[in-house]
Amino acid sequence: MRPDPGTDGAQTVDDSERVVIEAKGLQTHFPVKTGVIASLLGAKPQVVRALDGVDLAVHEREVVGLVGESGCGKSTLGMTLVRLYEPTDGLISFLGEDVTRAKGGELKTYRRRVQVIFQDPYGSLNPRLTVGEIVAEPLRIHRQGNAHERAEGVAAALGRVRIPAAEYVDRYPHELSGGQRQRVAIARAIVVQPDFIVADEPVSMLDVSVRAGVLDLLEEFSDELGLAVLYVSHDVATVRYICDRVAVMYLGVFVEWGDTSSVTAQPAHPYTQKLMAAVPDADPASRRQRVELSGDVPSPIDIPSGCRFRTRCPHAMDICAEQTPEWREINPGQYVACHLY
Question: In angstroms, rounded to a whole number, what is the distance separating the alpha carbons of residues 37 and 42?
Fold first, then answer.
């Protein structure tokens, strides 16, 4: 076992699996439009610090979960890693090569090897295309194979997601259920044989009855195809079900992460404790410690000094406003950034 590169020893993984994608000090800031009058008066330009210095490494055959409240930067991290958003600062490394500022053909090649499964199975599929055309589109864009080879690739990808190609290739999205649409979206992502997939809330809009099937597919592809998967979700229960490791995100940074079993069973950061306490427990005898938070999430335009969570934390101390907490290993494979430790 060794620490992941780029994380100052804060992640431990199996030595046998290579790092597929890695981020170091990754930042993504979005400028805020300033009115004409404010500009004339010399107002200082403002930025939304959506992602504000993240280190992360995802290995082949690994599913890493990313949890946190809406607006904490989860999706921004995923979209930045695949270069749908441009990073403001930091490094993105793919299989050891720097792709942070890749352009033109180099960027197109990179985007073939990294794919996204979007949240909305109703909005992410073109309603004017058939299922066969939707799944074949990445092959056409990246000029892979002739018409016959593309048809074979589409049939194989649909078969992997348990969609019979002969029965569905000529159907349109409106003829499919939500679960079938998301399976088609997964087939579209894997048809070009990527190395890394961002699954951005892939089951949040699906019925509970079909969620497990979609999650099982992601886990299967990670194991059998060697895919590295970043699974973005606000649903801790699904993260616990599918992920090997999990990172907890708050206001653009990580506050806790490590092995999923450790983080979900023994959460250390007050914010993580709050998230875990919100997960339904089937055991009627279970008595969880309630964690009460005060106030609202601060604006990403005006980040609190020191610990970003201190304005809501029930354990806030003077040092929390003065110093940014350092990472500490509190259990094997579990790390937290909090002055309580």
Answer: 9
For the chain, which residues make up each domain, given as ranges? 2-33+47-337
The answer to whether 252 touches 50, Cβ cutoff 8 Å, is: yes
Quote the pLDDT of residue 5: 34
Looking at the DSSP bridge assignments, the partners of residue 22 are 57, 93
Q: Give me 132's structure tokens.
A: 């066969």
Angle (nearest 5°) at CA 268 between 266 and 270: 125
Distance of alpha carbon 249 from alpha carbon 76, whole angstroms: 11
Instruction: Give pLDDT, residue 10.
Output: 42
Q: Domain 2-33+47-337 adopts which CATH fold?
A: Rossmann fold (3.40.50)
Q: What letter represents residue 185's amino acid?
A: A
Question: Residue 131, exposed/middle/buried by CB under 10 A (0-12, 13-18, 19+)?
Answer: buried
Q: What mean pLDDT comes out for the span 52-61? A: 96
User: Hunting for tokens 């009058």 — which residue is that?
Assistant: 37
Phi, psi of 2 (to 5 degrees): -150, 160
**Alpha-carbon span 136 to 32, nearest angstrom:** 38
Ramachandran bin of 68, using left for φ above 0, alpha for ψ from -120 to 50, beta for the remaining angles: left
Return the closest-CA partner of residue 10 out of 336, 339, 273. 336
Q: 59: how many CB neighbours lie within 10 A of its CB?
A: 23
The model's pLDDT over 197-242, given as tens digits with 9 standing for 90+, comes to: 999 999 988 888 889 999 999 999 999 999 999 999 989 989 999 9
